[in-house]
């Protein structure tokens, strides 16, 4: 019991924020998890009540609370719609860290975060070698979506249709890049992120292409690390801090005008969670983190807000336009309020007819490690997304987050739907590249 | 405490995935949206069909277990807070719209259907379900009926009670009782339906609800009027009604609320204004045009400083955004929000608004007032921090003063939130002891073991 007092003292850090929840329950109407399960412990109000219960020392052990706190997509829908402005994500992240610090990480979490993720070079090596071996264990199942499934029963993969590790990660293709600001007069640092690097290197390449075409100088530092969200959401702040410091060294904040990413999750982590978690760092680190956060933009947001889309080539060939719909990644729309710019990009691409789907901003159910721990619920939420995509009658669904791309590919692949999943930047890069092949069309 | 054998019986009835007896889960069903102490239930159960619902009710009665039905838990008077050690029965496993009948204009729903979802389904069929509680995106129709919920359209279209045509409910022994019908007129039997509406789960457990639907209004017109005197604004409400115009909505925001909304949403509201009135008339296009002009003339005559009339839907949305964000804007100012709903006859609105300002001064509290001025249902919203014990005592005293004031003006303790636990102690002031004794006799006849939502409305 003495230990629980210690935990309660730690929890005082979030007490003031907890007090601002007025228990109105509005979070129920937007929570994708609650929609699937109808359980109060799955929605923000219930989780806040549980943390309040911990503070009131209602529990002998924190395990059951921790377990329920972990059952969350961290999509931020509740926070975006909260009438009282409760900073739900901040509370959850901090509480997860406190509880993990108190009860410790599981063996596999330690292996993954402390053993691999915290050592970017080793992590790169391991994933590279895994990509060699994965073909022995998995087989391609849907050529169009590029998904695979397990050859033999595997507890980790189950019957998922997943995007396999790429043969060559992006950092093998482009280990380093430093080009001067071109005709745009701007120079950006490109934070690649794990999923783009290891699973969608083509998208990362397309970012480079697009920036080049837009006349933007680029800095791609060598040896970038993960943004830290997987460790942070599991409550491993040590690994997170390590990754943060590693990245800070590689991205000298004075050397670029903006830091761009093509991953909604990385963007939101750098913008919001880096400053939140740097609160206890020294003043100069805090200042650097704050400046990087301010400079961080999603790629579509950067292109649109900086008026760099004017050069998108038009097509001379008369052809039937491709109908494209868009899925709003939670970390872009709900966390950062970015939803117009990706649509602006799509609308700027000639040859594409943009079609809005019903519930475009409803979570796809991925939620990072949530998908691994609670696959059944993740899939159920994904199924709803699939139906919305189908109902749009589009042949392509675009989005701005590689994690969403993986989840949407899984549900579409299982359903056998002839619908492609693309990153917005891929479609834009193709228009530009296509134009290179048809110079007369300009 | 609930015996393990009973938990097992419940699991046999509804399936073990629908029984929550872990403490962490129970903690999440210990509260609702009222500012009251949570009470930990012993077990939470979620029936998924009507028959099982009845059997759970009968089991609780047989075993003498206090039973509190919970929809979405948005209740603002503590109606969904269980008895310590009792059973919470969730209705979100009973969430089907069973029928929407366009010909006879009614809908049949299970109690766990979310209000806004029914409203949308009905609208898709070209019909209209007018009751619109502020929590409708979350609240359930079972909860709306049990609390007789109101909303912004109460003035012209009435409240939930005005739309309940029929009910099916389980009595405490698990017998299925039918009352009302699908016909517009129904004169058979006791009006058990009326007894059930607003009974807050103390007399029976709802199983099916038949709701009246109406054709939607063909036109509407919204306007916003700015006043530099509170007195003028509240007199204008009375003046509009006195001209025999019944707007669909007639809402009021005081200066405190206007400033909170403006700080929060930068909508361009006049922060110096003493009060704002929002008026919407709807109905036949001809009538809307005529009444719109009349209202505008009255607003001018009463000294409105500025009048904005919405020319299209976008302008209308802008006008209503101010009202919609009132509670959010106020809620962001302080951790604890006490949203009251004392209601007065609408001619007494000026007196009530005046009294509320006095109460805020007397108890040195921040009170923002907004609400449904047209039907006399104001929402004085007290902003505080419950952890500040001294201030909280003043809040409790202020609440009592608000009730006394409303009753002195011929009003009521609750326009739309219900009595629940929060106002049970004050009920006598409004109804007198006789009504409470009679209510208790009805209660003991229908619920002899006193298991149905104990403590609500008439106390223990």
Key traits:
heterodimer, A: 442 residues, alpha/beta, 5-stranded mixed sheet, 4-stranded parallel sheet, globular, B: 460 residues, alpha+beta, 7-stranded antiparallel sheet, 16 helices
Q: Brief overview, please?
A:
The complex is a heterodimer of chains A (442) and B (460). Chain A has 22 helices and 11 strands. With 442 residues, chain A is an alpha/beta fold.
Describe this structure in words.
The complex is a heterodimer of chains A (442) and B (460). With 442 residues, chain A is an alpha/beta fold. Chain A has helices at residues 2-19, 32-37, 44-55, 63-70, 77-81, 88-103, 107-117, 120-137, 170-173, 194-198, 201-213, 229-233, 237-250, 264-277, 283-295, 299-305, 330-336, 340-348, 369-373, 375-391, 402-415, 424-437, and strands spanning 138-142, 147-150, 177-178, 187-190, 217-220, 258-261, 296-298, 322-326, 352-354, 396-399, 420-423. In chain A, helix 21 links the parallel strand 10 (396-399) and strand 11. In chain A, helix 4 (63-70) crosses helix 6 (88-103), helix 14 (264-277) runs antiparallel to helix 15 (283-295) and helix 20 (375-391) crosses helix 21. The termini of chain A are far apart. The model of chain A has no long low-confidence stretch (mean pLDDT 91). In chain B, strand 7 and strand 8 (176-180) form a beta hairpin. At the A-B interface, helix 3 and helix 4 of A face helix 2 and helix 12 of B.
Task: Name the beta content range of chain B.
Answer: 15-25%
Which class of secondary structure composition applies to the elements of chain A?
alpha/beta
Poorly predicted spans of chain B? none
Mean pLDDT of chain A: 91
Specify the structural class of chain B: alpha+beta
Describe the global form of chain B.
globular
Oligomer: heterodimer
Shape verdict of chain A: globular
N-to-C span of chain B = 19 Å
Largest sheet: spatial strand order of chain B: 13-10-12-11-15-16-14
How far is it from the N-terminal to the C-terminal residue of chain A, by CA? Answer: 74 Å
Amount of helix of chain A: 40-55%
List low-pLDDT spans of chain A. none
Count of DSSP H/I helices of chain A = 22
Number of strands of chain B: 16
Mean pLDDT across the residues of chain B is 95
* Helix fraction bin of chain B: 25-40%
Q: How would you sum up the major sheet of chain A? A: 5 strands, mixed
């Amino acid at each position: 019991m003495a230990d629980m007092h210690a935990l309660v003292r730690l929890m005082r850090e979030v007490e003031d924020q907890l007090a601002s929840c007025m228990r109105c329950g509005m979070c129920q109407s937007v929570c994708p998890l609650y929609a699937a399960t109808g359980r109060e412990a799955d929605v923000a109000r219930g989780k806040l009540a549980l943390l309040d219960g911990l503070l009131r020392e209602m529990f002998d052990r924190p395990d059951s609370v921790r377990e329920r706190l972990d059952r969350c997509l961290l999509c931020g829908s509740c926070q975006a719609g909260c009438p009282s402005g409760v900073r739900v994500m901040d509370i959850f992240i901090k509480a997860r860290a406190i509880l993990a610090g108190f009860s410790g990480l599981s063996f596999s979490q330690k292996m993954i975060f402390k053993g691999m993720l915290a050592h970017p070079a080793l992590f790169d090596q391991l994933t590279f070698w895994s990509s060699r071996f994965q073909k022995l264990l998995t087989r391609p199942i849907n050529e169009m979506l590029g998904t695979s499934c397990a050859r033999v029963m595997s507890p980790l993969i189950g019957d998922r249709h997943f995007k396999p590790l790429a043969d060559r990660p992006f950092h093998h293709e482009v280990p380093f890049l430093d080009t001067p600001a071109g005709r745009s007069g701007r120079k950006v640092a490109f934070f690649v992120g794990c999923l783009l690097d290891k699973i969608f290197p083509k998208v990362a390449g397309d970012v480079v292409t697009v920036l080049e075409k837009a006349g933007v100088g680029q800095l791609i530092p060598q040896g970038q690390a993960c943004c830290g969200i997987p460790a942070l959401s599991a409550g491993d702040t040590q690994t997170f801090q390590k990754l943060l410091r590693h990245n800070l060294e590689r991205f000298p904040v004075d050397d670029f005008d903006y830091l761009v990413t093509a991953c909604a999750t990385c963007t939101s982590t750098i913008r919001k969670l880096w400053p939140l978690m740097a609160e206890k760092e020294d003043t100069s680190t805090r200042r650097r983190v704050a400046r990087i956060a301010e400079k961080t933009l999603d790629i579509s947001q950067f292109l649109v807000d900086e008026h760099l889309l004017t050069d998108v080539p038009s097509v001379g060939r008369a052809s039937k336009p491709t109908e494209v719909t868009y899925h709003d990644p939670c970390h872009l729309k709900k966390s950062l309020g970015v939803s117009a710019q990706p649509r602006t990009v799509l609308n700027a691409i000639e040859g594409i007819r943009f079609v809005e789907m019903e519930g475009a901003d409803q979570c796809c159910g991925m939620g990072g490690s949530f998908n691994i721990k609670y696959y059944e619920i993740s899939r159920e939420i994904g199924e709803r997304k699939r139906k919305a995509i189908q109902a749009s009658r589009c042949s392509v669904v675009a989005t701005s987050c590689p994690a969403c791309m993986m989840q949407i590919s899984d549900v579409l692949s299982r359903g056998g739907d002839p619908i492609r999943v693309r990153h917005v930047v891929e479609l834009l890069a193709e228009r530009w590249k296509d134009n290179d092949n048809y110079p007369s069309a300009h | 405490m609930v015996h393990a054998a009973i938990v097992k019986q419940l699991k046999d009835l509804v399936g073990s995935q629908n029984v929550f007896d872990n403490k962490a889960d129970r903690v999440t069903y210990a509260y609702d949206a009222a500012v009251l102490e949570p009470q930990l239930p012993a077990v939470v159960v979620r029936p998924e069909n009507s028959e099982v619902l009845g059997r759970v009710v009968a089991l609780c009665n047989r075993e003498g277990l206090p039973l509190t039905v919970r929809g979405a838990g948005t209740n603002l008077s503590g109606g969904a807070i269980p008895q310590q050690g009792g059973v919470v029965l969730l209705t979100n496993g009973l969430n089907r719209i069973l029928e929407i009948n366009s010909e006879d204009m009614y809908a049949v729903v299970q109690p766990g259907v979310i209000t806004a979802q029914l409203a949308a389904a009905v609208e898709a069929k070209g019909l209209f379900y007018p009751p619109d509680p502020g929590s409708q995106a979350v609240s359930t129709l079972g909860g709306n009926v049990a609390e007789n919920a109101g909303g912004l359209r109460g003035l012209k279209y009435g409240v939930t009670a005005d739309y309940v045509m029929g009910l099916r409910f389980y009595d405490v022994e698990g017998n299925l009782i039918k009352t009302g019908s699908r016909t517009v007129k129904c004169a058979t039997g006791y009006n058990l339906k009326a007894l059930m509406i607003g009974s807050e789960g103390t007399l029976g457990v709802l199983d099916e609800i038949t709701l009246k639907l109406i054709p939607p209004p063909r036109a509407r017109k919204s306007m916003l009027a700015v006043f530099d005197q509170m007195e003028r604004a509240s007199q204008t409400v009375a003046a509009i009604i006195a001209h025999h115009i019944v707007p669909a909505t007639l809402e009021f925001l005081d200066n405190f609320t206007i400033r909170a909304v403006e700080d929060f949403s930068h909508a361009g509201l006049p922060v110096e204004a003493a009060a704002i009135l929002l008026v919407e008339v709807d109905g036949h296009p001809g009538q809307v045009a005529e009444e719109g002009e009349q209202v505008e003339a009255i607003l001018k005559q009463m000294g409105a400083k500025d009048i904005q009339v919405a020319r299209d839907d976008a302008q209308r949305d802008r006008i209503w955004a101010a009202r919609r964000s009132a509670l959010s804007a106020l809620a962001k100012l302080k951790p604890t929000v006490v949203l009251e709903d004392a209601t007065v006859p609408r001619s007494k609105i000026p007196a009530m608004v005046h009294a509320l300002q006095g109460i805020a001064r007397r108890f040195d509290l921040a009170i923002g007032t907004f609400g449904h001025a047209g039907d006399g249902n104001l929402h004085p919203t007290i902003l505080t921090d419950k952890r500040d014990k001294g201030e909280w005592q003043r809040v409790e005293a202020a609440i009592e003063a608000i009730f006394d004031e409303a009753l002195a003006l011929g009003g009521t303790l609750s326009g739309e939130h219900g009595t629940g636990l929060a106002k049970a102690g004050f009920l006598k002031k409004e109804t007198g002891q006789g009504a409470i004794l009679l209510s208790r006799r009805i209660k003991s006849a229908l619920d002899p073991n006193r298991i149905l939502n104990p403590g609500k409305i008439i106390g223990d």
